[in-house]
Amino acid sequence: MQGKNLPLWLPQLTAQGGPRFLQIADALQAAVTDGSLNPGDRLPPQRRLAEQLNVDLTTITRAYDEARRRHLLEGRGARGTYVSAPKVELTSILDLSMNTPPPPDGVDFDDMLKQGLSQVLMRTDAELLMTYHLGGGSNSDRKAAAQWLEPMFGVLDSEQVVVCPGAQAAIAALILALTQLGDVILAEPTSYPGLRVAATQLGRRIITVEADKHGMLPEMLSQACRQHKPALLYLNPTLQNPTAITIPQRRRKELASIAKRCNVRIIEDDPYWLLADAPPPPIATFAPEQVAYISTLSKCLTPGLRVAFVLIRDLHERERFLTALRSFALMTAPLTAALTTQWILDGSAARLMEGIRKEARLRHWMARDILAGRYTGTGDGLHVWLELPGYWNSLQLARAADREGIAITPAEAFATDHGSSSGSVNAIRISLGSMKDRGRLQAGLQRLSHLLARLPETFSTAVV
């Protein structure tokens, strides 16, 4: 039970309100926003507030640290902790549009980068890092890749794994290797835009297959296979971009079975598997010879690595893939590949990823609380798919948000086939990791929530 004489700005903590340190930090921010707390006001000592709230001191310390991250508080040594003066905001755009991993709390990325590069330079001849390499990765790189994929598949033969300069390059090379000009690729109506870009540039046709809240419909896949004789099926089955749907295990088995029966190769683009809470086994476990599986580090570590791992069991398909990849991307940058390998083997990558998972969960808590009944996320991953009220359409909202200094991504950006019915989806994707500072993220979400709650400027009611 909470004690007496609590500060007026602090509401009752609830079991349903998420982590308590975030509830306290949110209350602080709300009090500063509505004027209940003003710059220069002194905050209660941490130990006293912990006693009043009947929580441990660590909870209060984390709450105050979080408030400092949001530039709400400043410490003045022995004099205590005070509400800070507002800072001038030099960056006007609140970016909710880019799906990047959030910076984890308690991880010094600069130090991690310096130590990783230092280890690489100590153990590797600098000349080897600055010259040409055969595509596909060195033996060490492939072994590190196989280790990275162990949570999905268990122990793997590293010879079956190819190291690539990013997932987009891998998708394009797979299309080149496994299809011919004019071939059909099947995909869900709303999906990763990079697929459409690659397929269009390479002269392949995308046909959409209807999906529901559990992903692509097996009966519609069977029908599409009979009708269109596709060469490839593209799936992003875990925390799908943009809908955040995770295809359940039973349906994964059904889709794999249909693809095997119809002799259709599958590209399983699975960047978020390691960020998901208890995800089902990859589709590749149900049809090993049928699936090329892609895991990128850009979504679970950092985009700057530009490294992806592709598991292809069939030797001849792997060789065709490498040949296609070399036609436009001779190799992964050796220094980047070496740093990736170093981080995986020394455990830095796993520690960084776990920090990102925790940070992502906290940001989902924040989004759930601010967006209230509109939030339909699962609490993990990097983004939220938000269906809009009928008085807004996604393009209209994106333009209005831009005028408010918020960047969001409308559903139209994810329409796999612009000639299909996918454009009728009225939703936006909100990315939770692109802003380093949680306070700015909260400000962006609050501004977006206020925008959603009001009618568009062009809205008018009929007069009868």
From TrEMBL:
InterPro entries: Aminotransferase_I/II_large, HTH_trans_reg/aminotransferase, PyrdxlP-dep_Trfase, PyrdxlP-dep_Trfase_major, Tscrpt_reg_HTH_GntR, WH-like_DNA-bd_sf, WH_DNA-bd_sf
CDD domains recorded: AAT_like, WHTH_GntR
Pfam families: Aminotran_1_2, GntR
Keyword Chaperone among UniProt keywords: no
PROSITE patterns xrefs: HTH_GNTR (PS50949)
Record keywords, A-Z: Aminotransferase, DNA-binding, Pyridoxal phosphate, Transcription, Transcription regulation, Transferase
GO molecular-function term, one example from the UniProt record: DNA binding
Entry superkingdom: Bacteria
Domain HTH gntR-type: 18-86
Similarity comment: In the C-terminal section; belongs to the class-I pyridoxal-phosphate-dependent aminotransferase family.
Name of the protein described by the UniProt record: PLP-dependent aminotransferase family protein
Source species: Comamonas suwonensis
